[in-house]
Design brief:
single chain; alpha/beta; two-stranded antiparallel sheet; 22 helices; 9% strand
């Protein structure tokens, strides 16, 4: 029910090429720019086609889905600003969806995805907060319309944010009361519906949210829910602080409460498949620690994306500075799911990327939309030692595309980590407008990356076997600059305040490498359960402990984790030289024979030469025909041969 441009870009294509005051970036500006009547007309068309009874039935029939997480806007229950009238009919659609879910045996978790004045500054909060137009600064170059968001992002739900101190000098209690009133209205409306699993009072409050005020809000929301719907689950987002020091013991003893964390790999630096596999499995340690110190953990959002390429993932026509880390794959933009009556569709395939332009680039180019990169088969035949992923093209040749293999194993490892220790998980999202199975649960099911049916598949249960035993260590790569090593040690020193790390910083050469390797491995081992990754600025890599890594090693399960591929890289230099030499010799012989047949003067000169005398005197009819020599029955030829071989000083061959 909340618009996000990256999920449904067909709703936002109409704003490409627009200017200040005529461009929408989120739900708030969608209603503001289009006006109540047009916005509501488009929203109703979206609601009628985006989620249908058939889709709910298909999800239920997969056998692996038992609950749906429904993002709703606070404005749907207590309207304000441009939302007034814009979302007329939305609550009836929610009622309809609840009935469909109940028919199919699914539960629904209400997730309040937006709060007044934004809880995180993202477009998923309803309003991308922290925004300014910068068109005037670009007019001297191309006259492009431009804007800035990410460097000045803010969130004003709890008050005015001070970017200098990253704090809230004053708390906006009116906004908090507004949110609590929304919780009351949701409980009042749906407490008797049998499909409702529970409620999440706010989605992704950002990490600068005052933690004590947030906890107080969670307490008050919990009391409202338990008073009106005592059997509902109450699931609280971790505010991007999945830390036992923050949440351990909070609301201890209260029934039906859980902590929600969102685990993505899309914003990680590029890595090998082994790095992503290990990162997926190690989340189990973090979840287990929170389960011990707080209680039930739900992974409220996760996906299979390993890069940041999905179009508009970081906002309409925008991107986080520095993202994506690698070039993206492009595919034809999809036809509009709601039909061609939707303004702005189909995407104009005669135009390059259009404005307005943010601080980063993402958008359709000549009718093609960016999606996640393919995974390439390693030419070494070994996913541990292969480095082809570093220089692989965004779109792999079909015979070298290993995406199905990598995504299947990554999905199994993630499900193993989330389900083996925690209390459930929700994939984000159930579908996407641009066909991207790394973000679409339905497409991932269709491709077989996520299995249908019971998730107790032995391949899932054993997916993290190697990682669970921690058979890996974090090792320095070869030829890493000393400066980079010392930067990594500086990070560890700041985190641990260890004197031994400080002493290591004074070393150099091989002593530095040897000692730094031990320090880095120790830090990684001790902190992997808290989310530490084997990266350290790109100077380290995961290798198996007590193993010599060779191209003959195997990694993973016994069901063909990796299919070796022999890639023909061309002949060696010596082979090329020999082939060329043979070709030259063959060409000379062929040319000589042709000249003997076609040029009488050349033929005569050759037959009279000393070098050719042995061939000239041959009695083999095949040789004589090949070189166009007269037959022995020719009297003139016999006389010439006798005369030439009886000359003084010449040795006779007769």
């Amino acid at each position: 029910m909340v618009l996000e441009p990256w999920i449904t870009p067909s709703m936002f294509y109409q704003f490409l090429g627009q200017g200040e005051g005529t461009t929408a970036f989120d739900t708030y500006t969608f209603c503001e720019v289009l006006g109540v009547e047009e916005a509501n007309k488009q929203l109703r068309r979206h609601w009628d086609t985006w989620v249908t009874r058939e889709i709910i039935q298909e999800l239920a029939a997969s056998g692996a889905v038992n609950s749906l997480r429904l993002p709703v806007g606070d404005f749907m229950y207590k309207s304000y600003g441009p939302y007034d009238g814009c979302f007329d009919g939305a609550l009836e659609k929610v009622d309809e969806l609840l009935d469909w879910a109940y028919e199919s045996g699914l539960t629904v978790l209400f997730d309040i995805h937006t709060l007044k004045d934004s809880q995180n500054g993202f477009d998923n909060s309803g309003q991308a907060m922290g925004f300014k137009w910068t068109t005037a600064l670009n007019s001297e170059f191309a006259g492009d319309v431009s804007f800035e968001h990410w460097p000045i992002r803010s969130a004003r739900w709890m008050g005015e944010f001070d970017p200098e101190t990253a704090s809230y000098p004053e708390i906006n209690h009116d906004n908090i009361e507004h949110a609590l009133d929304v919780i009351s209205r949701i409980v009042e409306r749906y407490s008797g519906h049998p499909a409702v699993l529970g409620l999440e009072p706010v989605n992704e409050p950002w990490q600068y949210t005052p933690i004590e005020e947030l906890k107080q809000f969670y307490w008050e929301g919990y009391l409202i829910v338990k008073k009106g719907a005592p059997y509902w689950k109450y699931i609280m987002h971790d505010s991007f602080r999945f830390d036992t020091n923050v949440w351990g013991g909070f609301m201890d003893g209260c029934p039906e409460r859980a902590i929600d964390t969102h685990i993505y790999q899309a914003w990680r630096d590029p890595d090998s498949r082994v790095g992503f596999y290990f990162d997926a499995c190690q989340q189990k340690d973090r979840i287990a620690a929170m389960e011990r110190e707080f209680g039930p953990v739900v992974v409220g959002e996760w996906s299979l994306a390993t890069d940041n390429c999905a179009m508009w993932l970081n906002g309409f026509n925008d991107n986080l500075p520095g993202f994506p880390r690698l070039p993206c794959k492009y595919i034809p933009c999809a036809d509009p799911y709601m039909g061609y009556e939707q303004p702005g569709t189909p995407v104009d395939n005669t135009k390059p990327i259009q404005g307005p332009y943010g601080s980063g680039m993402s958008g359709p180019i000549f009718g093609y939309c960016p999606v996640d990169r393919d995974w390439l088969r390693e030419s070494s035949g070994n996913p541990q030692t292969g480095r082809d992923w570093v220089r692989s093209p965004p779109e792999a040749p079909k015979h070298l595309d290993d995406s199905d293999n990598v995504m299947t194993h990554l999905a199994f490892k993630k499900i193993n980590a989330f389900s083996g220790i925690g209390h459930g998980f929700y994939f984000w999202n159930f579908r996407t407008d641009v066909p991207e199975p790394r973000w679409s649960y339905m497409l991932a099911l269709e491709k077989g990356w996520i299995p249908k049916g019971n998730l107790n598949d032995p391949r899932i249960q054993n997916a993290c076997l190697a990682e669970d035993k921690f058979e890996f260590k974090c090792a320095l790569k070869h030829d890493v600059a000393e400066k980079s090593i010392k930067e990594a040690l500086g990070f560890i020193l700041d985190a641990t305040n260890s004197t031994s790390v400080g002493d290591t910083l004074q070393l150099s050469g091989s002593d530095l490498r040897t000692t730094a390797s031990e320090v880095i491995q120790e830090y990684f081992h001790d902190h992997k359960g808290e989310g530490a990754t084997c990266d350290f600025g790109g100077i380290t890599m995961l290798v198996e402990i007590n193993r010599t890594i060779t191209d003959d090693d195997e990694f993973g399960w016994d069901d063909d984790e990796y299919q070796p591929v022999i890639i023909y890289s061309g002949p060696s230099t010596m082979t090329v030289v020999l082939i060329a030499l043979v070709c030259v010799i063959f060409g000379l012989i062929a040319g000589f024979i042709m000249s003997m047949h076609m040029n009488k003067k050349f033929n005569k000169k050759v037959r009279e030469s000393k070098l050719f005398r042995r061939v000239n005197s041959s009695t083999n009819s095949l040789v004589r025909k090949s070189f166009a020599l007269p037959d022995y029955s020719d009297a003139a030829e016999i006389e010439r041969l006798v005369t030439s071989q009886n000359q003084p000083g010449q040795k006779s061959y007769l």
